Amino acid sequence: GLGLVFWLIAARLFEQGEVGVAAGVVAAMMLCTQLGLLGLGSAVIALYPAHRRHPAPLLDSAMTLAALSALLASAGFLLLAGGVFSQLDVAASTPAYAGLFVAASVLGTLGIVFDQTATALRRGDQALARNVVFGVAAVAALAAAATLLPGTGSAQIFMPWALAGVAAFAVGAWQLRRALGRYRLRPRLDRRMVRELRGVALRNHLLTVAERSPGLVLPILVTELLSPAANASWYGAWMMAWVIFIVPIQVGLTLFSELAHEPDSCARAVRGGIRTSLAIGTAGALVVAAAAALLLSLLGPSYAEAGATPL
């Protein structure tokens, strides 16, 4: 929801083409986080019940692997963008922009692991608090960037994602320390734990990437093959749809966590999860569909004209 506020403000403060380029870069960053995640968040959910007494090796190894993998994924995208793309090559155009991209990718990947660890701990309130901090920090940084850094285009819109990632990471580390008896996150790879993580993570990773990649690749293709302005319209509609999509996604993660804790509750938990997803998701989808033109008009008339029917 706060991400939607972010793009509403961006659409009001910046030209549509710059919004489209920034949205393409953000989609690329989110794709790197999904590729870099390697299913490690799901592995933490599955393995945590067996390691709840001594979770440090599990969490340290998962976070370290996720950070290294996201670093490689983001570096790979920058090489591709600089050599192949004509619009999103802006992400690799300067060391500062490239550094922001790598930082946002790594911190975003760690943020997903934090969220899924909170799910494993049955502490959804921690994920809520951390993401509120991220959203508020991103909106505040966007307003500050528009005021203090005029004329830097899509970099002004993208920079808040990296800055908000720093704030959210600090909150996530503090939350884990409080929840797990002053546990302190540190970079390390426990060889035995890496083998355990790998056995669970990769299977879940393939499933997640297959499901998430199309929605993240599409803004990149729209920006490169159509235009940044077309992507701005598409991304506004997609962000509003994502507010609804996140409901069954999080219900599914919670269901996964409950089954890891209580495997015998499968039939009851699955029925409850499906009912919850359908009830909340359908109601939200109907509201957004009925108000599509009105909601997109908040971004601007051109956004509503182009995006209402797809939404």
What does this entry show, briefly?
This protein is mainly alpha-helical and 311 residues long. It is built from twelve helices and no strands.
Overview of this protein structure:
- The protein has 311 residues and is mainly alpha-helical.
- It has twelve helices and no strands.
- It has helices at 2-13, 16-37, 40-51, 56-84, 95-120, 124-148, 154-179, 191-225, 228-261, 266-290, 292-297, 301-307.
- The model has no long low-confidence stretch (mean pLDDT 90).
- Helices cover 83% and strands 0% of the residues.
- It starts with a helix and ends with a helix.
- α2 crosses α4.
- The chain is globular, with a radius of gyration of 19 Å.
Number of helices: 12
Secondary-structure element order, as H and E?
HHHHHHHHHHHH
Oligomer state of the chains in this structure: single chain
Terminal CA distance reads 16 Å
The tally of strands reads 0
Helix content: over 70%
Based on CA inertia axes, which overall geometry fits? globular
Largest sheet, strands/sense/barrel: none
Structural class: mainly alpha
Strand fraction equals under 5%
Task: List the SSEs and their pairings.
Layout: H1 2-13, H2 16-37, H3 40-51, H4 56-84, H5 95-120, H6 124-148, H7 154-179, H8 191-225, H9 228-261, H10 266-290, H11 292-297, H12 301-307
Helix pairs in contact: 1-6, 1-9, 2-4, 2-5, 2-7, 2-8, 2-9, 3-4, 3-5, 3-8, 3-9, 4-5, 5-6, 5-7, 6-7, 8-9, 9-10, 9-12
List keywords for this structure.
mainly alpha, 12 helices
